[in-house]
Design brief:
By secondary structure, the chain is mainly α. It has one domain. 77% of the residues lie in helices and 0% in strands. The protein is built from six helices and no strands. Helix 2 packs antiparallel against helix 6.
C-alpha cells in the first residue's frame, strides 16, 4: 500500500525505503508459515507490523520523496503539499511510540522462539526488524519533521 501522493506522482517514495518494507513483509509472511512457536510468534509480529508499515507508507515515506530536490537546493511551491502529511505524522507520532512499544515485545517473543528452535534465519530477521524500528525512531521520524520545518520555513508558510 503506497501513498495517494505517490499515486498522483507528487512525491516518489525512495526505492530504499520501499524495498526495506517489502523485504520485511516477505520475511514475515515466510516466518508466519513456519510451524510451532516461531510461526505463532511471527503471526503476532505480523499483526502489529503490517498495519504499521501501511501507515508509514501513507504518511511518512512520501515525505522522503522531496529529499533529492531539497538537497540540491530545488524548492517548488507544490512541495507545500507535504505539510498535511507532516501534520498527520506529527499527530500520529505519539501513537507511533505506543506501536513501537507493542511491537518490541512481540519481536522479542519471536527472538526467543527462534532461539528455542535454533532457527538462525529467524534470529537474523528479528535483528534486522529491531534495527528497522530503531532506524525509524532515530533517523526516519526526526527527518520527516526536519523536512516539514524546512519546507514551511523556506516557502514562508
Amino acid at each position: 500500500m503506497y501513498s495517494r501522493f505517490e499515486r498522483r506522482g507528487i512525491f516518489k517514495i525512495p526505492e530504499a525505503l520501499r524495498l526495506g518494507h517489502d523485504e520485511m513483509r516477505a520475511e514475515l509472511v515466510r516466518a508466519t508459515s513456519m510451524p510451532g512457536p516461531v510461526g505463532k510468534a511471527a503471526g503476532r509480529v505480523a499483526s502489529l507490523c503490517l498495519p504499521h508499515f501501511e501507515r508509514e507508507e501513507e504518511t511518512v515515506y512520501p515525505v522522503f520523496g522531496l529529499l533529492r530536490d531539497l538537497s540540491s537546493g530545488r524548492l517548488l511551491p507544490e512541495m507545500a503539499e507535504v505539510l498535511p502529511l507532516v501534520a498527520a505524522f506529527t499527530e500520529w507520532r505519539n501513537s507511533l511510540g505506543d506501536e513501537h512499544l507493542s511491537i518490541a515485545p512481540a519481536i522479542h517473543s519471536l527472538l526467543l522462539a527462534a532461539h528455542q528452535e535454533d532457527n538462525r534465519e529467524i534470529l537474523e530477521f528479528t535483528y534486522a526488524l529491531r534495527m528497522h524500528e530503531k532506524l525509524e525512531d532515530d533517523v526516519i521520524f526526526p527527518t520527516v519533521l526536519l523536512i516539514g520545518n524546512y519546507v514551511q520555513e523556506r516557502l514562508g508558510i
